[in-house]
């Protein structure tokens, strides 16, 4: 194989692995309780996660570099940015009752690790089985709103349990049913979330309501899945 092709392919792995550096920067922001900055870094990680796959397929990374597993690398990056940093934020943002904060963080990382190891985490038609460990989104809403601590704790417990329940949760890109609407709402959510971040996680009521409405859509749309 041409060495230039292998070099380009390995550059994709480096690009994916940059998510670890982004997660580190997000953690530093979380330690300082600089939540808008943390969410900016986590948002950048989402961008990397969204474009590294198409890059890898275009450059035939799997064929050129079989030694390195892009799938494993992607899971490591996802765990750091979707789970580990957000779990720290949830347990240190003051949104949960103090006695439950650290236990909740521990439960989040353990259940998410088990979920990521599940070989059947997706259905044949690309829905996730159970709550797909989107703890970055959970942290975002708990800090955006925030609800009463006991209500926030109950919500976290429900999602922890839902991780292992066989209900379908839509993949926003790979699920064909309502794909256009889902992607449009995802794009709208990204714009509104960025605006909320620029406002110090204290946007006006209309933006908050729109963000909550989109969240309800993503929680509910899996229920419209046709049996396969």
Report on the structure:
With 228 residues, the protein is mainly α. The chain has one domain (3-224). Helix content is 70%, strand content 2%. The chain is built from nine helices and two strands; from the N terminus they run αααααβααβαα. The chain has helices at 3-31, 35-58, 61-64, 70-92, 98-116, 135-144, 149-162, 179-198, 205-220, and strands at 128-129, 168-169. The chain has a two-stranded antiparallel sheet. Helix 1 (3-31) packs parallel to helix 4 (70-92), helix 4 runs antiparallel to helix 5 and helix 5 (98-116) packs parallel to helix 7 (149-162). The longest helix has 29 residues, at 3-31. It is globular and about 55 Å long. The N and C termini lie far apart (41 Å). The model has no long low-confidence stretch (mean pLDDT 92).
């Amino acid at each position: 194989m041409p060495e230039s092709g292998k070099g380009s392919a390995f550059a994709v792995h480096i690009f994916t692995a940059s998510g670890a550096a982004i997660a580190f920067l997000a953690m530093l922001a979380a330690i300082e309780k600089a939540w808008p900055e943390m969410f900016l870094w986590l948002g950048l990680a989402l961008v990397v996660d969204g474009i590294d796959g198409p890059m890898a397929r275009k450059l035939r990374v799997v064929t050129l570099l079989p030694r390195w597993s892009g799938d494993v690398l992607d899971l490591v990056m996802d765990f750091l940015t979707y789970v580990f940093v957000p779990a720290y934020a949830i347990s240190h943002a003051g949104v949960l009752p103090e006695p439950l904060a650290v236990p909740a963080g521990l439960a989040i990382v353990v259940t998410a690790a088990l979920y990521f190891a599940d070989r059947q985490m997706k259905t044949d038609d690309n829905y996730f089985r159970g709550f797909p460990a989107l703890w970055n989104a959970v942290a975002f809403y708990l800090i955006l709103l925030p609800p009463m601590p006991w209500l926030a704790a109950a919500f976290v417990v429900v999602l922890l349990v839902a991780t292992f329940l066989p209900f379908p949760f839509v993949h926003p890109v790979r699920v064909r049913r309502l794909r256009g609407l889902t992607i449009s709402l995802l794009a709208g959510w990204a714009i509104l979330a960025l605006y909320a971040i620029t406002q110090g996680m204290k946007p006006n009521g209309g933006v908050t309501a729109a963000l909550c409405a989109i969240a309800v859509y993503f929680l509910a749309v899996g229920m419209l899945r046709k049996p396969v």
